[in-house]
Design goal:
α3 packs antiparallel against α5 and α5 runs parallel beside α8 (215-250). This protein has a single domain, classed as Rhodopsin 7-helix transmembrane proteins (Rhopdopsin 7-helix transmembrane proteins), CATH 1.20.1070. The chain has a two-stranded antiparallel ribbon with strand order 1-2. It contains 14 helices and 2 strands. The chain has helices at 12-23, 47-85, 90-107, 109-117, 126-164, 170-187, 189-194, 215-250, 254-289, 297-315, 317-327, 330-344, 372-377, 379-383; strands at residues 195-200, 203-208. It is mostly helical and 385 residues long. The radius of gyration is 24 Å and the shape is globular.
Amino acid sequence: KAKGGLGRDSSVPERMTELRSLNATSPWNWSAEENRFRDLDELDVPPEGSVNVRILVCAVYALVCVTGLAGNLLVFVLMTTRMSRRKPSSVNLLVFNLAVTDFQFVLTLPFWAAETALDFSWPFGDAMCKIVLSVTVVNMYASVFFLTAMGVTRYLAVTSALQRGPRRWGCAVRWVVAALWVCALLAALPTVIFSAVRTVSGERLCLLSFPAGPSWLALHHLQKVLVAFLIPMLVLTVCYLLLLRSLRLRSRQRRRSSTVTRSVTIVVLSFFVCWMPNQAITFWGVLEKLHWVRLDKNYYFVHTYVHPLSVCLAYTNSCLNPLLYCLLRPDFREKMRELFWRRLSPAPGTGVAASTPLRPFDHHPFMRVHTPEAREQILISLTAC
């Protein structure tokens, strides 16, 4: 017997089905092979550990949901004000779509928090299971794709400006945005097709129900590791290394290069730190399903206790993105201060707080400067966005 591995006493195969329900909160970790867990009969798992993990997961989901909604709503306010006044730049268009994906993503967290609080029993019905699971995965892929596109756009904008003067990428970026949404939908297609509510050990669980055999799930997990982490991480790293190299070769002041280096390091490390633990555990699951590593006690404990925490860490990326990609921008910070001061300060002669419209992204001076020396002076502002 395994003693209450996820809060209830049951046999090891049933413990493992509950483990899969835990992993279903991150919908790429579920398997249908009951008999592969029979070597774990001697596990003695304290129920308190699972309860504590579930409490922590619910608390983190609530915190990420609140901060993510607030941060991305702030981005919406600033960006829509900018877009209503003039044509948005390519980076601003990508930032706006990134905020859309992160906003939709955090909207699913109350459902996963409720499921976690109910010991991973799904109370919302079959249709909501498919909708919430699909929205979660589509926006997970879309968020990563837009982060990657912003890195590429940043590199192209700076190198193009240094060599040939400022260029507009608006039309091309709109096609890129549409293509990225299509790619996210295609990447999430298995989730749209196979997500369902299934009764496992007397519990109704929202999970991915693939056809029999581990190969489908292994391929699904491998797709997530490659498409949502390794390839984007490689592209971001290459683009930022080339960007830093270009700036160091052309910048005349070392301080500028060090400032860009710090900003770029924060961006890349945040993506890596948030997603690497979850992706590493996912890849471990791929190796186990392909029988390249042994299913043992360590695997059980990592997927029971560490995996849900890695999901929480990955989800925090959705509330970090507004900070990293907007609040690091000097012009954004300036307009934020301007907004709050104007809202708090009374209008002259009225005693009433002024309600001056915000203009967060006025045309960047880079777009009005055509000499190499002047353009170089504002590269920091461009690359910090």
